[in-house]
Specification:
The chain has 224 residues and is mainly α. The chain has one domain (33-219). Helices cover 82% and strands 0% of the residues. The chain has helices at residues 3-96, 100-108, 112-122, 145-191, 197-219. Helix 4 runs antiparallel to helix 5.
Amino acid sequence: MATGDVAADTGQDGEGSHGRRWEEIAEIVEVFFLAIVAVTTAWSGYQASQWDGQQALLYGQATEMRLEADAANTRGGQLLTADASFLNGWLEAEAAGDQKDIAALYVRRFTPEYRLAFEDWLKTDPLNDPNAPPGPGHMPSFHSPELEKAKQLNEDASVMFDQGTAAAHVGDTYVRFTVLFASVLFLISVASRFKVRKVRVATLGLSFVLLGYSVIQVADLPRL
C-alpha cells in the first residue's frame, strides 16, 4: 500500500472517530435534556392540578361564607324588626299614660343590645326633644351581633375569593409552562433527526435556552 493511501486512511479514521465522538456527546446532552424536561413537565403538571384544587377549595369556602353571611344578615334583620315592633308597642303604651306595666313588658322583650341602646336613647328625651335620634337603632351604642357577623363573613368571603382567583392564576401559569416544556421536548426530539451538525447544535441551543428560562420561572412560582 502506498504511503499516501495509508495517510488517507488514517485521516478518514480520525475524522470518523471524531464524528462518532461528537455524536455520542450530542446524544448524552439530548438524554440529559430529556431527563430534565420529563421531571419538570411532571412537576409543573402536578402543581397545576394542585393549584386548581386549591382554587376550587377557596371558592367553595368563599361560597359557604357568603351563605353564612346571608343567614346571619337575615337573623339580624328579623331581630331588628322585632325590636322595632316592640318599640312601637312601648310608644303606644307610653302615649296611653296608664299602661306602664305593658310598656315595661315591651322593654323586657328587647334584645340585650337594643335595650342598652334604648336606655341611652331615653336619656336624649326623645318624647319631648324633636332633635333626638329617631330610635335606639340610631344610637352609637347600638350594635347587632348578627349584622356585624354578616359583615365580617362577607369581608372574609371576599378575601377568600380573591385568594381563589390568585390560585387560579398560578395554576394557569403552571399550565403554560407545561406546554412550554412540551415544546422543548419536541425541539430535542427534532434535533436528534438532523444530520447537519450546525442545525442540530442550533436546535439544541434553542432547547437549552427555553428549558433554562422555563425552569427558572417555574422555580420562582408558589408551590403547594
